[in-house]
Every structure is written in structure tokens, then in C-alpha cells.
Amino acid sequence: MTDIHAQKILVLDFGSQYTQLIARRVREAGVYCEIRDYDISEAEARRFNPRGVIFSGGPESAGERAAPAPPDHLYALGVPILGICYGLQVMAERFGGKVEASPKSEFGFAQVIMESQCRLLRGIEDRIDLDGRAQLDVWMSHGDKVSRAPSGFAIAAATDSAPIAALADDERGFYGLQFHPEVTHTAQGQRIIERFVHEICGCESLWTAANIIDDAIAMVRDKVGGDRVLLGLSGGVDSAVVAALLHRAIGDQLCCVFVDNGLLRLREGDQVMATFAANMGIRVIRANAEEQFLEKLRGVAEPEAKRRIIGNTFVEVFEREAARLSGVRWLAQGTIYPDVIESAGARTGKARVIKSHHNVGGLPETMKLELLEPLRELFKDEVRKLGLELGLPYKMVYRHPFPGPGLGVRVIGEVRKEYCEVLRRADAIFIEELHRAEVYDQVSQAFAVFLPVKSVGVVGDARRYAWVIGLRAVETVDFMTARWARLDVELLEAVSNRIMNEIPDVSRVTYDISSKPPATIEWE
Ligand code: XMP
């Protein structure tokens, strides 16, 4: 079988917000890569054995005394290096170039003009100008710039405000770009990354969904042997992909527990059972625990207390169900690569330990099971591609994220069964209309919130006091910041009319126009 990790790229992180994006673009080019701190040791770099290295951008100024710089042993590895933004500047400084603060920062679109031919950029252009020079539309985001090229490097490209926008040393395979090829605003960015990893570093496209699946299956079979594996199924993408993957790898040795906590979306429990148990033939135990969860949540209004109760009750139910299974040695989890990176700590925490992350609650620590994490090398977009390749329905794979505590944090204040029922119906109408208008995939997350406020309405001649539903839809890349979605008013009107006509307990619908920050995406 092909070793899909054999030809790989090392991405060194200098603290750029785009570091993960660089890694994702390399993976999209079909090449495996990992992110490491910029001060990687020589032993680790040699053990990793990359075919090429990429230096990310960073917030620092290359000319400052304490500015982070890559260790010299990297330049002696004998493999090509691509420095991006700050990565270009530290490389320029190292080889005798000069870096200066620009009088003004450059942020946004720019046009670079090719000054000389180099292997990295040759033939890659958006247009040819009247003087016959190749031009590229790129994304810039920098304060400093290289003002004198280091010896051995040719100036490959320039802009008006950055006369040294690209440096090239074809002989050693060292390149630097002041602009960001990893950002989609740089139209030819992916081609530049592909040129680097394929032609300059000589990596083949081995990192494909089909190959990743074969590799993961072999790894799981090798590790698990004839043992049984337990998986908590939440209905979310990650655990769904783990289930499909493990089922393909070990069939009936996989047993899933799905905890129906009564805080799920409309018909969600039945959908999970239909997809996994009925269609795919996976062993799934459904624990109907609605009453237990609602009983524990009775009278509790504080959001963090609700989260704790839901998390603890989940563990209780999960352990109870798991205890009924015999011979289980492994607990599978849907940990993905960003969780691994974040828990490793961007700069200081060198230990590559994993946080006890679980989509649906805390980890059952008392169970003494070994962890199986077949997605821990993958980014979310790769997990989704794997899901489709494994035959999961598109709608499940591209569903908006749903918080572990579910409707428990979308019913504001005390959670009651009748509130959840109203909310479930309102939420389903909203999502249905988003699909009908074909905007579901354009927003990152959309849902309804139940507000326990009695608001007045009229039915015929009578005044009627009923509950309020809030609608929330946001656009975001990383869920750390978000912009409220500018949904079409006709669509909002259709949703609001349907909710008030079809659910008698609702007298008013509002649309949330708060962005994050200062608001959060969820209401609690
Ligand atoms: P906020 O509301 O903090 O949410 O802007 C950011 C993202 O995280 C999700 N979220 C949660 N997910 N358990 C989860 O598993 C939680 O307690 C939780 N709270 C918020 C939220 O849905 C959004 O995608």
C-alpha cells in the first residue's frame, strides 16, 4: 500500500493567523504536511524528514532583536524552503538582506509585476501588461518589507510599495513571497503552492480522500485487532465520519451509543438511527434519556450550570449503556487536527498533548479505555470529503455545527419539554426555508432561539399572549468572529409567517442583528 505520509512538507508557525490555511492548501494540493513551532529542534526536523519547508507569516518585525527566527539547521536540510510574508523577511535577513518598516502598512489587494524568471512563478500570471511583463493579483498584509535583497537571491517580483515582493534562489530552492498565496484572494495562490510542493519539492499527490481512508483503515485494523470499539454518536459530522470509517474497517466490532437527551433538533434521533443503524447496518444503541436530562435541568436557569448538568448526565448515561457491552477496549473519538494544534499550544506548550475534547460532553475517564482517534490528522474540510467518500449523505456532512448542550442553551433560562417542542418546530421551519431559498450553504450557522417572554398578539379580535422566537444566522470562517447574515427580507417574512401560523404558542418572531464580538453566536 502507498505510504501517504512518505512525501511531506513541514509548515513552521511564526504565529500567523494564516498558518492553518497554508497547511490546508498544501493538503489540497494532495500533499501531507504538519504544523510545528518555528524553533523546531534539529533532531525533530530530521525525524520528520520533509521534502520541503514553508515558513508562515507572523506578527513580529524581522529586524527586531528578539524576533523569532528559524534555526539554521533548517537551511542545511538540503530541501527547498518557501518563506511567506514574515517568512520571507526572516530568510532575507539571514542571508544578508535588509528589512525595514514601511511608512504605511499594506493590507489588501495588490498587483505584483514579475521582474525576473524563477522556477516558482514562471508562467503563473493573471495578465500581461503593455510592456509584456507578467502581472499577478495578490493579497498583501504586512508592515515591514525587504529593502535590500540578500546575496544569491534574485528579485523575482515587485509592487509599487514593496519593490522586493518575491525573492528566488533557484539553485538552493529557497523562495520568499511578500504576499499570501494561501489566501483565496490571491487568484493564482493555489497554483503557486502546487508548483512549490510538486515541482520544486518533488512531492506526488498521494493525499487523497480514497488514500486517506485506506490508510486509516489499515491503521485501525492494525491497532485494534479483534477488540471491540465503542463510539459516542452525536449526529455531528466528526463522530459520523468516525462511525462510517470504523464500520468499514472493523464491521461489527464497532458499537455506537447514541444518547437522545431530548435536546436535539426535530426528528434528529430518528434520523441518526435511520442513517447509521437502518441504512449502514452499524450497531447503534439508542439511549432514550430525555426524562433523565429534563429532570436534572428542572429549575436551573444559569447557562453554565445547564452546560455542566448536560455534560455530566451525558457521561452517566453513556457509561451506563457502555457497561452493558462486554469486551470493549477502545473508545473512538472524533478529534481533528485543529484540536491537536490548539491543545499543543501555539508557542509555549511544546507537549503535543490532546485536550479531552468531546462534542457531546465530557470524556468518560473512569472507563479506562484506550483512545482511538482516526481523524486526528485531518482538517474539517478533509473530514467532510472523507464523509462523502464513505457514502454519508451530503446533508449530514455539510450540516451547520450544533452545540453539545443542544437546545439546552437555545431555550433561554429554564429548560422545559414544552419549550423544547416549540423551539424544535420553529427551528425546523427556519432551516427548511433556508434550504428552499438555497441559502443554507451560504450561512455558517442558523438556528432558532426560544425566549421565555410572553408577548402580545391578536387572533381575530382577541389579544393573545404567547412566546417569542429569535432567529439567528451568521457568516463566519472560524466561529471566533462572526457577522450576522444579511438574509433576504422576503425570506425572513416567509419564515416568520410560517412560525406564527403553524405554532400557536408563538406570537412574535425577531431576527438577531448582533455580530460577534461583542455578541456571541449562541444566546447563552
Ligand atoms: P459562541 O456562542 O461562543 O459559539 O459564539 C461559537 C461556536 O461554538 C458553539 N458552541 C458550543 N459547542 N458546546 C459545544 O459543543 C458548547 O457548550 C457550545 N457553546 C457554543 C456554537 O454553536 C458556535 O458554533
Summarize it.
This protein is α/β, with parallel strands linked by helices and 524 residues long.
What fraction strand?
25-35%
Poorly predicted segments: 346-362
Mean pLDDT: 93
* Helix content estimate: 25-40%
Sheet having the most strands:
10 strands, mixed
Question: How does this structure look, described?
Answer:
The structure is a single chain. The chain has 524 residues and is an alpha/beta fold. 31% of the residues lie in helices and 25% in strands. The protein has helices at 19-28, 42-48, 86-94, 189-200, 209-224, 237-250, 268-279, 290-297, 303-323, 337-344, 380-389, 394-397, 417-436, 489-502, and strands spanning 8-13, 32-37, 52-55, 81-84, 98-114, 127-128, 134-148, 154-158, 166-169, 174-177, 228-233, 254-260, 283-288, 328-332, 370-372, 445-459, 462-475, 483-484, 506-511. It has a ten-stranded mixed sheet, sandwiched between helices. Helix 1 links the parallel strand 1 (8-13) and strand 2. Helix 5 (209-224) crosses helix 6 (237-250) and helix 5 (209-224) crosses helix 11. It is globular and about 80 Å long. The protein starts with 7 loop residues before the first strand and ends in a 13-residue tail after the last strand. Xanthosine-5'-monophosphate binds at residues 307, 359, 401, 403-405, 445, 479, 516, 520-522.
Write the layout of secondary structure elements.
Elements: E1 8-13, H1 19-28, E2 32-37, H2 42-48, E3 52-55, E4 81-84, H3 86-94, E5 98-114, E6 127-128, E7 134-148, E8 154-158, E9 166-169, E10 174-177, H4 189-200, H5 209-224, E11 228-233, H6 237-250, E12 254-260, H7 268-279, E13 283-288, H8 290-297, H9 303-323, E14 328-332, H10 337-344, E15 370-372, H11 380-389, H12 394-397, H13 417-436, E16 445-459, E17 462-475, E18 483-484, H14 489-502, E19 506-511
Parallel strand pairs: 1-2, 1-3, 3-4, 4-10, 11-12, 11-14, 12-13, 14-15, 17-19
Antiparallel strand pairs: 5-7, 5-8, 6-7, 8-9, 9-10, 16-17, 17-18
Bound molecules: xanthosine-5'-monophosphate.
